[in-house]
Amino acid sequence: MKKVLSILLAALLLIGCAASFASCTQKQNLTFGKEMLAVGSQLDALNGLLKGDADIAVIDSVMAGYYMNSTETFKDYQVLSGVVLAEEQYGIAAKKGNNALIGKINEAIIALADTDYKTIATTYGLATETLVTATTQNPDANATDGSWDKIVSSKKIVIGYTEFAPIAYHEGDGENAKFVGFDIDLAKAVVAYLNTTYSAQIEIEFELIDWNQKEALLENGSIDLVWNGMTITDERIAAMAVSIPYLANKQVAIVEKTDAAKYGSTKETLIANAKDAIVIVEKGSAGEEIVCPVE
Fold it and tell me: pTM for this one?
C-alpha cells in the first residue's frame, strides 16, 4: 500500500511540475535565463545588478532611458541595443466597475493633449512615447456608475504609485526633495482640469504601494487609482476599469557594459546566450510576466 501511495504521490508531483511549467510557458512570451529573481520595484531590480545578485534586469524602457542616461550610478550598465522583449502601452486603472471615474480621467487627458500633456511629456523626455491626441475617443464618456460622484463628494482622490523615474520619484535629498515625475505632474494637471471644469474641490493624496498588491488595494478601497506606468493587459482589463492608453513603453534588458557583446543585439541572441544568467524583475510587473527561466 505504501508503495502504491508513493507512486501516486510521485505522479502527482510530476503533474504539478508539468502544470507549473505549462503555466509559465503559456503565460510568458520568452524562455531564457537559469533563474528569475522578483523584487519589490524596478529600481530594486537595477540595484540588484549593482550588488551582483543578477546578470540581467528586465525593466521598462521609459525607466531605463532615464537611469542609463541621467545618472552616474549605472554608468557601467546599458540597455542591450536592438533588443526589444515586448512592446506595450501604459494605462490608468480604477476598481472594476468604476468606469465613470475612468471616463473623467480620459476626458481630461484628451482635453489636455495639446497643452499640459504634451508639455509634461517633453519635460521628462517622453514626447515620442505619447499616445493621446485631441481626437482620441473616450470609451467611458457616458458611464454613470457613481464612482466620479463619490470622488467629488469626498473631495479627495487617492492615487497609488511606486517610485521609478521618470514616472514618479523624489528629486533631491531629505526634506527638500521634490516629488515629481511624468505621472505625478500629469495627475495634478488632470485633477486641476476636472476641478475647473466641474467646479469640484478634489485634492490628490499620493499613496506609496506594493505594486504586487495594486489590484487588492483598488478592490478594498484603499486607493482610487493606480497611476504609475501600468502596462495594459487583457487580464487587467478584465479585472479593473482601465483608461485609454496614454504612453508607449517597451520591455528591455539591462546588462553590464562588459557583458553586452556576449548577449548580442537581438532578442534571439539574448535568449540563446543567456541560458546561465540570473534575470531580475519587479514582482507583479510586465517584466515578470514575459520572463520564464529555462527549466
Answer: 0.81
